[in-house]
């Protein structure tokens, strides 16, 4: 907290105090100039941004936008952090994921900044029999190991515990997580797993290994199925509560059961939403622990993973920027461990450069930007506090709905959860298709001449349950059609840009059109005549004034030259000879799909 000097100097003393009503009047004036009539709260609403879960980001937050008391770091409700010291002692745990049985990669990561290992074991990962070889040379008393073994968790856990004993690691020095997550595995595969195999692991950890957890509450399956932040929170709460019930019925106290859980969340490039989600998750879990009679055990241990949904396959270098923002948000949000997925994650097995950039992302933020030296740096921001509060309410409401329908297992098996997630993704897909949510390098500023980045195939991930979606999937399908056409014919499908008037008159719209059609793998042609362009369709690009004078005649000339379809870049109007219109906010995916269909690009 900043303490102002008591020297009698008030820098704003000569200026009148501004009120919220005065600001609203100024907003009304600006809107009026743009042709919108709105007053009072409606004027403010006009500048708000709609989010998922029924939330909205307002243009201005003030002291009146207060939220519930967030307490202090390390104390209930743990909004500001699960530990009093936060990550100030050495930064967050830098956790790298490994899916291949490669000891050299494991040692290379640990020697260059990684502080814990996240191993995919069994189906789609490292064979259980290879665990010893993969961990050869690893100081298991220094580097925590987290397993992700799915249905092979019992065998993988048994092998890891054998290794600890064989290498003489004292039980109180063991750190990590055995990674049992029956409901998460069911969400991934659609196959129900008996919790009875997990109970002995939790009992053994609670009795013999004080620093080792047995279960992970993984919210990534719900995020990767297209869920919102609120749905991710609600599903994780329902899963955590289901595990608490099982563990307490097996004889553990609520405190002991809570100590067996670690929660995993996605960190996205929406930095404020990620910060608020992690803070809200701690508040919600604190409430669960309080209701269960153990308020002091509600400090949620969090593992944040940069979102696979946001990773693009085209122009994957942009993923470095997305991952950096997501990692910053995870650190500011108070995650205990952070995994940065390599920028080529969506393409296959990452190469050495991608792994190095991934681990160095955390290193730079911790060591050079000193991001971890301040506990809960976003705390006190009216915007962040309000968003945290609203997101907590949205997550709690979704959690209550799951509980009313019988709990997490019931909504997974009935299909209710899948339908909820699909509805959310369908609404988001509309924004992606209309480029209201732009994807740099994919739907915005695509580069058709880029050399494809190729990687060795990654092991097949578990499937059969909830779908795995990606933001770029609709555009990726369009680009794949264009690539196939290029391979078959030696050229990409083309479209002719018929510019009218001076560069000042047409540049804005011709740039917009080139950007739009390249997102679908269609090459814009701006030089020469239509006859020489090799295109079968054309787009008129100019100002509204010149359209009035020349749009009809130019469209007729293009049709006479062989154009089968003529677009006009601008809002829909009535121009003879113009077949359709492209404009900001149009359904780009629908336009591009129909265009490729007409061009015969299969």
Describe it:
Keywords: Cobalamin, Cobalt, Isomerase. This is methylmalonyl-CoA mutase. One of its GO terms (biological process) is propionate metabolic process, methylmalonyl pathway. Its cofactor is adenosylcob(III)alamin. Helices cover 44% and strands 11% of the residues. The protein is an alpha/beta fold and 602 residues long. Strands 3-4-5-6-7-8-9-10 form an 8-stranded parallel β-barrel, surrounded by 8 helices. The model has no long low-confidence stretch (mean pLDDT 95).
Can you tag this structure with a few keywords?
TIM Barrel; 21 helices; 44% helix; 602 residues; 8-stranded parallel β-barrel; globular; 5-stranded parallel β-sheet; alpha/beta; 2 domains; Rossmann fold
Q: Which outline best applies?
A: globular
Give the N-to-C terminal Cα separation.
62 Å
Number of helices: 21
**What would CATH call the homologous superfamily of the largest domain?**
Methylmalonyl-CoA mutase
Total count of strands? 15
Biggest sheet overview: 8 strands, parallel, barrel
Low-confidence stretches: none
- Return the CATH topology of the largest domain: TIM Barrel
Beta-strand content bin: 5-15%
Query: Any idea what the radius of gyration is?
Result: 27 Å
Q: Report mean pLDDT, rounded to a whole number.
A: 95
| Class by SSE composition | alpha/beta
Oligomer kind: single chain
CATH architecture of the largest domain: Alpha-Beta Barrel
State the helical fraction.
40-55%
CATH class of the largest domain: Alpha Beta
Tally of separate domains: 2
- Spatial strand arrangement across the major sheet: 3-4-5-6-7-8-9-10
């Amino acid at each position: 907290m900043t303490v102002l000097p008591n020297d009698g100097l008030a820098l704003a003393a000569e200026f009148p105090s501004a009120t919220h009503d005065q600001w609203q009047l100024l907003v009304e004036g600006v809107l009026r100039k743009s042709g919108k009539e709105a007053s009072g709260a409606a004027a403010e609403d006009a500048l708000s941004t709609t989010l998922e879960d029924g939330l909205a980001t307002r243009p201005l937050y003030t002291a009146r936008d207060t939220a519930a008391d967030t307490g202090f770091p390390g104390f209930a409700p743990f909004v500001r952090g699960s530990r009093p010291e936060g990550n100030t002692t050495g930064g967050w745990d830098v956790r790298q994921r490994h899916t291949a049985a490669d000891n050299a990669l494991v040692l290379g990561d640990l020697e260059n900044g990684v502080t814990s290992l996240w191993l995919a074991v069994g189906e789609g990962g490292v064979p259980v029999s290879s665990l010893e070889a993969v961990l050869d040379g690893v100081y298991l008393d220094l580097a925590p190991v987290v397993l992700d073994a799915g249905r092979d968790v019992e065998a993988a856990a048994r092998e890891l515990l054998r290794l600890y004993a064989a290498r003489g690691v004292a039980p109180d020095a063991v750190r990590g997580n055995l990674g049992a997550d029956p409901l998460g595995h069911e969400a991934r595969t659609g196959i129900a797993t008996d919790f009875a195999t997990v109970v002995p692991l939790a009992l053994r950890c609670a009795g013999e290994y004080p620093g080792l957890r047995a279960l992970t509450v993984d919210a990534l399956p719900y995020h990767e199925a297209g869920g919102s932040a609120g749905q991710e929170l609600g599903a994780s709460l329902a899963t955590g509560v289901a595990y608490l019930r099982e563990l307490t019925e097996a004889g553990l106290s609520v405190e002991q059961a809570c100590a067996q859980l670690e929660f995993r969340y996605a960190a996205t490039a929406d930095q404020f939403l990620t910060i608020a989600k992690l803070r809200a998750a701690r508040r919600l879990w604190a409430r669960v622990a309080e209701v269960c009679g153990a308020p002091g055990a509600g400090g949620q241990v969090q593992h944040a993973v940069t979102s696979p949904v946001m990773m693009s396959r085209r122009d994957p270098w942009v993923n470095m920027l997305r991952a950096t923002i997501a990692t910053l948000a995870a650190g500011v949000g108070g995650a205990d461990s952070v995994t940065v997925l390599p920028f080529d994650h969506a393409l296959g097995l990452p190469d050495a450069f991608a792994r190095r950039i991934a681990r160095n992302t955390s290193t730079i933020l911790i060591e050079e930007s000193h991001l971890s030296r301040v506990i809960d740096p976003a705390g006190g921001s009216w915007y962040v506090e309000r968003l945290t509060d609203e997101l907590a309410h949205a997550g709690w409401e979704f959690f209550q709905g799951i509980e009313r329908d019988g709990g997490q297992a019931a909504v997974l098996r009935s299909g209710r959860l899948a339908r909820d997630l699909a509805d959310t993704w369908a609404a988001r897909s509309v924004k992606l298709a209309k480029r209201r949510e732009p994807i740099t390098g994919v739907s915005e500023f695509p580069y058709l001449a880029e050399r494809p980045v190729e990687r060795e195939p990654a092991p097949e991930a578990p499937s059969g349950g909830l779908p795995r979606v990606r933001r770029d999937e609709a555009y990726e399908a369009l680009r794949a059609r264009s690539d196939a056409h290029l391979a078959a014919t030696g050229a990409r499908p083309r479209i002719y840009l018929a510019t009218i008037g001076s560069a000042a008159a047409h540049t804005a719209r011709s740039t917009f059109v080139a950007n739009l059609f390249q997102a679908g793998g269609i090459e814009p042609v701006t030089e020469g005549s239509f006859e020489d362009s090799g295109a079968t369709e054309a787009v008129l690009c100019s100002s509204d004034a010149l359209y009035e004078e020349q749009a009809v005649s130019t469209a007729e000339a293009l049709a006479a030259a062989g154009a089968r379809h003529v677009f006009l870049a601008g809002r829909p109007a009535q121009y003879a000879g113009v077949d359709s219109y492209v404009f900001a906010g149009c359904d780009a995916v629908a336009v591009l799909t129909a265009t490729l269909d007409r061009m015969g690009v299969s």
